[in-house]
Design a protein that fits this description.
Layout: H1 9-21, E1 26-27, H2 28-35, H3 39-52, E2 55-59, E3 62-65, H4 80-88, E4 91-93, H5 95-101, E5 111-116, E6 126-127, E7 130-136, E8 145-150, E9 153-158, H6 160-169, H7 177-188, H8 195-205, H9 208-221, H10 226-234, E10 241-242, E11 251-253, E12 258-260, H11 262-267
Parallel strand pairs: 5-7, 10-12
Antiparallel strand pairs: 1-3, 2-3, 4-5, 6-7, 8-9, 11-12
Helix pairs in contact: 1-2, 2-3, 5-6, 6-7, 6-8, 9-10
Length: about 270
């Protein structure tokens, strides 16, 4: 465990200047510009401060300041959202992480879902004790987002309708189809419900399985939404999809061209 050790007046002034001039994370380039020193010198300073416990290295060339009240540099990230924005932009917080923030679920998920244009090798990194799940999307799929402020940093998150679209497109992002259904039900009952926009977003995303899952779930939890159900029916693509690719989908709902588990077949009253 790295213990904090003393530093001189000049170093304290430099660290204070860097913290004032940055927004939660500190890169070598930022430190170089703020201190008006060469990048190599800035890198050496940051590395030295990290060894002394005044900075915590996140990744090569990126640091976060250690809180003054901490007795060690081995501290968890204060806000993983800031790290996500810094490391994986262009990106947004989505899936169950967005659902938590938007009060679409009461479940607590320990992993932060980040939808990114980048193609990282490690899609499940663990950084300073925080777990991330990374999903690559095309740049054209960066729509249906809203900005939220985390301190001085603007981070993008999927809006309620886009959040539902993403978990319908890939139920893994909702924690599986059961929790996806619960999030969808909460969305339907909330003031954020906008099925017209959801269908518009779904067309824009271009994943045919979304309309099959959406229509099926609408008949399951909101049978009175006949217009939206009809619109899903009119947009069915060829072939059969799976309600949840991670489950044993053994029964076909021909009406929706959707394979579902046996117990979901029994739940579905319209075939």
């Amino acid at each position: 465990m790295e213990q904090l050790t003393g530093i001189g007046k000049i170093d304290r002034e430099r660290i204070a200047a860097i913290i004032r001039g940055t927004k939660g994370t500190i890169s070598v380039e930022e430190a170089s510009g703020i201190l008006n020193v060469a990048p190599t010198d800035a890198a050496k300073m940051l590395s030295r401060w990290a060894k002394k416990g005044w900075m915590s290295r996140v990744r090569r060339g990126l640091y976060v300041p250690v809180p003054l009240e901490s007795r060690t540099a081995n501290v968890p990230l204060e806000d993983p959202w800031l790290i996500a924005e810094r490391l994986f932009a262009p990106c947004y917080i989505g899936g169950w992480s967005a659902a938590e923030y938007l009060d679409l679920t009461e479940q607590i998920f320990s992993t932060l879902i980040v939808m990114t244009v980048q193609k990282p090798r490690d899609r499940s990194p663990r950084i300073k004790g925080s777990a991330f799940m990374l999903r690559t999307i095309p740049e054209k799929a960066l729509f249906g987002l809203k900005a939220v402020w985390r301190g001085q940093v603007k981070v993008f998150i999927s809006d309620p309708t886009r959040t539902i679209l993403d978990i319908l497109s890939n139920p893994v992002l909702g924690g599986g189809i059961r929790s996806t259904r619960d999030m969808f039900t909460n969305y339907i009952r909330s003031e954020n419900k906008n099925l017209e926009l959801l269908i518009e977003y779904s067309e824009r995303l271009g994943n045919g399985a979304v309309f099959k899952r959406l229509g099926f779930l609408l008949e399951l939890v909101a049978l009175d939404e006949t217009e939206a159900i009809d619109q899903c029916r009119s947009r069915l693509t060829a072939g059969n999809a799976k309600l949840d690719p991670n489950l044993n989908n053994e029964r076909l709902i021909t009406r929706w061209r959707l394979w579902v588990p046996e117990n979901w077949k029994r739940k579905h009253q319209v075939d």
